[in-house]
# Entry
Amino acid sequence: MLEVAYVSAPQASLRDQVAAIYNRVGNVKNGERVEVLEHEKRFARVRTASGIEGWIEQRYLVDQKTFDGLQKLTQDNKDAPTQAPGILRNDTNLHITPGREAEHLFQLSSGAKVAILKRATAEKQPGAAVPNRPTGTKPGAKTQAGPVLEDWWLVRDSLGHVGWVLARMVDVDVPLEIAQYAEGQRFVAVFVLDEVPDSDKGVQKNVPQYLCILTDPHDGLPYDYDQVRVFSWNMRKHRYETAYREHGLNGVLPVRVTKEDFDKEGSLPVFILRVQDEAGAVSERKYKLNTPIVRRVLAPGEVVSHPAKKRRR
# Structure
């Protein structure tokens, strides 16, 4: 049985011979399946599904194992909830695991839109740019010993492909009207909880209210997020206000947003956070928004030991 490989470059040429001077006999595209007929140093002779045969650089090919791994990653996360929309800053590879040296198959173009699903960290490779220094750390100051970690996002592209990309290659697409309230923190996830009607200068419109998940603006943190804010819309002043704020969370993605019926209060937006304790156990916390009030929804027997901090602005 012939060896099978897949094209990992956006596009590559097939040549008639391995030589400085050659004729192009065809092209292959990203993700295309080919049969490998023979190997010679840095090249492989392949045959496409349409029967075209030619030589291609082996660095543009990945094996069946890599393809199957990415297919499984895609299948396992096909229903994973989107945490935030993202936009790629540069042409970026979708890796099978977090890490610059990890195998990849598909490549996304600069400006492509993706859905951010999960976060992970990986050790920075030698020669790679150093991640952002922790807040408050001065140049030349001593930092904690150990490997330097980089953040990675698991993303899903417009075609449904799933893979890991370096987090600093993705801009979280936060609505401008709430991005201004970052206060130096990094947006990790953003959700529309609901919409409320507003009439400004005789114009009627529906305005979204947001749940925002944030953290300090540097890589390698031991948690996915540690801050939560809810922005409600003040219909009298026609502006956003902070309806809820909570700090000190050892948060774990994903965050889930849904709706739930609360008897006399009716159907309300609900968000569920996953929080890890010192022993590593992950539990869920449920909150409801009855504009403009956010309250914790306790499970039977649950007690809040540290009341959340709230602030209106």
About this structure: The first strand starts at residue 3 and ends at 7. Residues 133-143, 307-313 have pLDDT under 50 and may be disordered. The longest helix spans residues 64-76.
